[in-house]
């Protein structure tokens, strides 16, 4: 059995310069009341105007070529910017998916026309995407996808449905995994393609599924004879499974997989400091040291991306450990300090506690469940 290797995390001086820049930007925006920090804002804090501001500053599409509206910065500079945005609890959900995975997917598999059309709009913070993988009968077992596109003149007719689709109510497009050939139980991963679906097209219906908090975050999406033009096929027909798996490495590896509850951890630290209680500080320091380890691992994954490697096994490991951690922040906070969690609570701690507790069950489901990730890690270790 082989061990998993991660490069030693190193952040250069340039990354610290950009950290100072974004830190100052966020301080001023918060002071001006542009946003109130919240937990889990990368999926539920949608603010198109804030996304456009980030786009103007060059903080979306950071690593992409300049000819597509990108900024040719390093993956580590991007890492630092995402880390600062998440730890400030800033409202980044509108553009998050497009920046994190749609852009890299189009750069790798898209046509020149698709790249030129979509990437500059994404980098300006104006064009948002949703992830169309899960279906009512296809979650962990994604190869069971049944949405189906049939070839017609000039394009495809898409029928079927997707579920748990984050942000489909504010996204302009969805990258949709569907069958483009008949289902073959012997070769379940074959015959799937990725189609770029305009969510405002005739035949598309987006219906809300409300969270326990009452917030509208994800949706059901129905397709009834939706016409998809030929030029909206991404990559090769029939290669959808492989392309979708590449996308998942981007989806799983970032600091959003352990920083969703960071605003709570920060406020907990403030409160514990005020008590001066050494026992509480000891308990808190255990959380902080785990956070530090996760951070070093996640930076290591960013370094692998920088070198053009596909860190799928490491990404699965960071996501598994990271999402368990972000769930436990709420548990530990509850045990250490008396709180009255309330979404509309006046005290920051109460407010962050309520958001964390109510969002936490989804952390270890979205982007692949704990059990599935552990399967990937186990297979990765054995086959290395
Ligand atoms: C907040 C949130 C946002 C989401 N956003 C999106 C989105 O934008 N787009 C999208 O496509 N999907 C999205 N999802 C869906 C998410 O990817 C699925 O919920 C997840 O993949 C699990 O699928 P499922 O819900 O069908 O559960 P199931 O696959 O039915 O799993 C149920 C349970 O069985 C376990 N299980 C299943 N198979 C195995 C196995 N082989 N071995 C061991 N255990 C197994 C699972 O680990 C889980 O605990 C989102 C989910 C959440 C919670």
Description:
The structure is a single chain. A four-stranded mixed sheet has the order 1-4-5-8. A four-stranded antiparallel sheet has the order 2-3-7-6, with no helix packed on it. With 384 residues, it is of the alpha+beta class. The chain is built from twelve helices and eight strands. Strand 6 and strand 7 (216-229) form a beta hairpin. Helix 7 packs parallel to helix 10 and helix 8 (262-275) runs parallel beside helix 10. It is globular. The protein folds into three domains: 13-127, Orthogonal Bundle (Butyryl-Coa Dehydrogenase, subunit A, domain 1), CATH 1.10.540.10; 131-241, Beta Barrel (Butyryl-CoA Dehydrogenase, subunit A, domain 2); 254-383, Butyryl-CoA Dehydrogenase, subunit A, domain 3.
Q: What is the helical fraction, as a range of percent?
A: 40-55%
- Overall pLDDT, averaged? 94
Biggest sheet: strand arrangement: 1-4-5-8
Number of domains: 3
- Corresponding CATH superfamily of the largest domain: Butyryl-CoA Dehydrogenase, subunit A, domain 3
């Amino acid at each position: 059995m082989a061990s998993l290797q991660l490069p030693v995390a190193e952040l250069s001086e340039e990354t610290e310069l950009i950290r100072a820049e974004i830190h100052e930007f966020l301080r001023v925006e918060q002071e001006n009341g542009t946003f109130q920090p919240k937990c889990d804002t990368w999926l539920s804090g949608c603010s198109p105007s804030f996304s456009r501001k980030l786009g103007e500053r060059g903080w979306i599409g950071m690593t992409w070529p300049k000819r597509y509206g990108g900024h040719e910065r390093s993956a580590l500079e991007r890492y630092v910017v995402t880390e600062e945005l998440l730890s400030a609890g800033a409202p980044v959900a509108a553009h998050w998916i497009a920046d994190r995975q749609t852009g890299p997917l189009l750069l790798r598999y898209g046509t020149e026309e698709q790249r030129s059309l979509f990437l500059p709009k994404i980098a300006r913070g104006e064009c948002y995407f949703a992830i169309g993988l899960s279906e009512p009968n296809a979650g962990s077992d994604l190869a069971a996808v049944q949405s189906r596109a049939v070839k017609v003149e000039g394009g495809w007719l898409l029928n079927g449905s997707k579920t748990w689709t984050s942000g489909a109510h504010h996204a302009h497009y969805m990258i949709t995994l569907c069958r483009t050939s008949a289902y073959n139980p012997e070769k379940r991963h074959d015959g799937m393609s990725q189609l770029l679906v305009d969510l405002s097209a005739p035949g598309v219906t987006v219906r809300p599924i409300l969270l326990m908090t009452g917030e509208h975050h994800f949706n059901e999406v129905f397709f009834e004879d939706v016409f998809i033009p030929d030029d909206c096929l991404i990559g090769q027909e029939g290669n959808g499974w492989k392309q979708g798996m590449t996308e998942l490495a981007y989806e799983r590896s970032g600091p959003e997989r352990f920083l969703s509850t960071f605003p709570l951890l920060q406020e907990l630290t403030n409160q514990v400091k005020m008590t001066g209680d050494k026992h509480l500080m000891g308990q808190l320091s255990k959380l902080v040291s785990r956070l530090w380890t996760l951070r070093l691992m996640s930076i290591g994954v960013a370094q692998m991306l920088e070198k053009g490697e596909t860190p799928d096994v490491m990404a699965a490991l960071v996501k598994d450990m990271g999402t368990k951690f972000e769930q436990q922040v709420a548990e530990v906070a509850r045990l250490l300090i008396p709180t009255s969690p309330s979404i509309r609570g006046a005290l920051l701690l109460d407010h962050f506690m309520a958001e964390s507790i109510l969002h936490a069950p989804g952390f270890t489901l979205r982007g692949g469940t704990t059990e599935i990730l552990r399967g990937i890690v186990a297979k990765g270790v054995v086959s290395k």
